[in-house]
Amino acid sequence: MVGIVLVSHSRALAEAARKLVLAMTGDELPLAVAAGTGDDRSELGTDATEILTAIQTVETGDGALVLMDMGSAILSAETALDFLDEDQRQRIRLCSAPFIEGAVAAGVSAKLGNPLDDILREAMGALHQKQDHLHDTEPTATPASAPTPEMQGEILTLRIALPNPLGLHARPAARLAQEAAAFKADIRLRNLTSGKGPISARSLTGLVTLEARNRHELEIAASGPEAQAALDRLKAFIDAGLGDPLDETVPAPVEKATGPARTIGISSGLAVGRLFFPGESAIEPPAQAIEDVKAEYKRLQDALTQTRTRMQQEMAALTRQLGKAKAEIFSAQMLVLDDPQLIEKAESRMACQKENAARAWWFAISEAVQSYLQLNDELLRQRAADLHDVGLAVLRSLGVATNEKIEIPEPGLIVVRDLTPGQVTQLDPEKIRGVICLEGGKTSHSAILLRSRGIPAIAQAGSLIPPLRPSTTPTMAIINGASGEIQLDPDKATLEKIETEQAAQRERAALEKKESAKPAVTPDGRHIEVAANVGSLADAQTAYENGADGIGLLRTEFLFMDRDSAPSEDEQTESLRAIVEAMHGKPVVVRTLDAGGDKDLPYLNLPQEENPFLGVRAIRLCLRRRELFHTQLRAILRAATAGDLRIMFPMIATMGELQEANAELAKAHESLLAEKIDHPWPVPVGMMMEVPSAAMLAADFAPEVKFFSIGTNDLTQYTLAVDRGNTALQDLSDPMNPAVLSLIERIIHAAHAHQLPVAICGEAGSDPACAAKFLALGIDELSMNPRAIPGMKQFIRQPAPA
Amino acid sequence: MTELDSKSVIAWLRLLGEVYGQKKDYLTDLDAAIGDADHGANMARGFAAVATKLDALEGKDIGTIFKTAAMTLLSTVGGASGPLYGSFFLQAASVANNKNALTAAEVGAALDAGIKAVVSRGKAQAGDKTMLDALLPALAAYQEAVVGGLVPGLQKAVEAAKAGSAATKPLIAKKGRASYLGERSAGHLDPGAESSTFLLDALLTTASQ
Lengths: 802, 209
Ligand SMILES: Nc1ncnc2c1ncn2[C@@H]1O[C@H](COP(=O)(O)OP(=O)(O)O)[C@@H](O)[C@H]1O
Ligand SMILES: [Mg+2]
Description:
The complex is a heterodimer. Chain A is α/β, with parallel strands linked by helices. Chain A folds into 5 domains: 3-133, Rossmann fold, CATH 3.40.50; 156-239, Histidine-containing Protein, Chain: A; 264-280 and 405-500, Phosphohistidine domain (Glucose Oxidase, domain 1); 293-397, Enzyme I, Chain A, domain 2; 520-797, Alpha-Beta Barrel (TIM Barrel), CATH 3.20.20.60. Chain A has 30 helices and 25 strands. In chain A, the strands form 4 sheets. An 8-stranded mixed sheet of chain A has the order 9-10-14-13-12-11-15-16. In chain A, strands 18-19-20-21-22-23-24-25 form an 8-stranded parallel beta barrel, surrounded by 5 helices. Chain A is globular. The N and C termini of chain A lie far apart (61 Å). By secondary structure, chain B is mainly α. Chain B is built from 9 helices and 2 strands, in the order βαααααβαααα. Chain B has helices spanning 6-22, 24-34, 39-57, 62-76, 81-96, 104-122, 132-145, 150-166, 191-208; strands at residues 4-5, 101-102. Chain B starts with a strand and ends with a helix. The interface between A and B is large, with 32 and 43 residues. The complex binds adenosine-5'-diphosphate and magnesium ion. The site of magnesium ion has 7 residues of chain B, from loops.
């Protein structure tokens, strides 16, 4: 049940209010009082620590509503919230409702088991009854925006609960808008739980401002020729999670350990340097009034079209570079360009205020950005930057200069309110050592891009560095993008220490990098291949630059994730070929699709399984979805013309599976042959060693393949029967466990008896302690995150410590 | 003195206990004119409570001392000045973490952090007839004069605080309880501006010894 906290200057008043409420609800209501000051709380005043305790007593997971009388009560309550952890703070509402009426209304609603925001609404409306009776209310202001036109014709409606754990944030909202736009129907949505809406289902901004969270009830109304079809489709689509995984969880922000300022780390890495405040160049499109409104409408439409085309091109380029999931950020952004609410707003400014297209558009965007920023939902607030970003792109198409690129005169850290994804892609990592965002969060698109660009960053530093007078603002800082810690104006000693450390590290890294193209040979003369695990073209490029001896594991899942249907053979061929080419003739081990388990592909409609890791995943899935497998194998064979490509099957548990997979490969080869499509044959085939049964039978498998690659993560999980995602079992999940090591030894022994090379492609391979052990066991190759390669090569070259 | 060490910080807080004890009636009278006649009592209660914690803080770093003062003020002052001064010391603590002495510049940073916390907690601006009318000019003056050292910086700060506080007299209160009085709040000094001036004045006294 939602809890209620009454905060008053007067203990007597609060106690009396408590009595009034409990008289209506009975004693089970979790209600706490924080009131009065002085030793026996008989004096007038409030106490932030008492409020904190009160909140923690009544809030047990469903949230709490805090009612306050005035003045210090409000300030103390806000102060108390600062001491709650982020998670719990999200579940607290400070409510401006009248103290007595609000408390009674909230108490009654809470007792009924209503959710927090319903109770808040009840409390806020608590004066209505009294006002109705006394007829003394001021007329309420008429809403600023004109009401949306009534729906025409027969209206069909439907109610549905939103299954998405993260709520209706920008990406699913974008997909919903896209679906809705495909029907000849006027579709409106209302969030019955929050009371927001109705809005047009085609309006992304509208959808987002519904603030629909997990399990909120939505009402969809549709009219028009395809109303029924639209409702059916939307129902199915929403039930299936709008293209989002239904087991997604909110990433927990990494909070700074101590201190009231809660900066959070959003992109890991240590950075130190001078602070620069590039500021926000306020964008002010020219004020020029217009005469021909129609012509101006058209200018806006043209600009929108042009922007769409350009963004599509950028997206295609990014998909190739960063993978589909990251590029999809831009597809969510693109929907802004079709948002009827924004366009209507801009058009009405042109028609009524005679504003030019740029100014009118910017007004609409700025207003929408503001309304995003005021939302309660942190995830949604972070989307404001996306909106801003697209708004700017359109302005540029309208010929307005929007100098957005952030440049600083010398290497250092930048302090910004927030960055747009577009700005992140333009940052120069040579100069910009780190980013301090005053707002922002871990899940923002900019944060995702910062991480993939390897630029350390922290967010939510607003309380530490308000952009005040230059004379009072700090000039230097050290940030830790992993822990979120920031140290402003560190003293000389700390600074020097960090700088020497960093210089040494840079020097070491530079040296390692310089040597990275050379082979890694152990002091006793063994040549170890150090290869890369790769999941995108960008990864492959990084791998090559970091001296990878090849790609030891190409995860093909990236081709299949975050999309509505499986990629075509041509698309797969092209992406694979680009990666093979990026390696300039070095070997590339392509692992066939490893979906299922924790990696769901919605369009495959995989059945829910009780134990997905023990279910139909990887090769088991491919052998049950032969067309999917066939297409992939053909694409892989075709891409093999581009260089030294090898094929690897994941999750082989039995000899039968390997034989079937090989038979499929042969079929793919024959079909290509029949169509006279160029491809090399035979192509070396290897298998993953990650299921204990395969490891036990390594000696039987060895004659059948050309190489083994050990996936230590899964091998450990399956050997020790420990779910690798279960944080409670972290210490059991140890690849150095003797049972795992003994299986590895067995695999190596069997392989070497047949002159097969054995690789390790699990995370453990990049950990020096584990790597040393694997080397001692006789491993031939280590495959790892591309950035770890130069360091690992150096490590291999050094004599092992006695 | 060129640095403010943890001993002086404790001496400062102890002195504040005495100062607010002596000024209790004065501040309460000011609050009686435009508020609810409790500011003197609030400050005296809060800093007396802080004083009882000081012996145990001997030898601790300044961040810890400030933090303890902050938590004590939050729970004992009672009025709006509780969360405001509490937030002041809490944020000042974040600058002083693990430090046993603050340079003149660090004192500036601590004041800056503390005052920003008052701004963000109370959402008042210069001219709203609040403690900020003393604190903001004091901070600006300090930052300007601090090149000359800690004491000269504080001297300028106190001068500016006094002037700022005196200038609250004709203002109409926009924040806090006095704002309920509207125009009738003009013609009286703001009690919070006066208590802030005492706070800085005591710091100057301590640093000058
Ligand atoms: N929102 C605010 N921002 C800054 N200072 C404030 C604010 N509200 C009140 N004050 C300061 O607090 C002083 C009053 O403190 P006090 O009497 O202890 O609290 P209360 O007003 O709750 O009785 C005022 O004189 C003013 O300087
Ligand atoms: Mg008062």
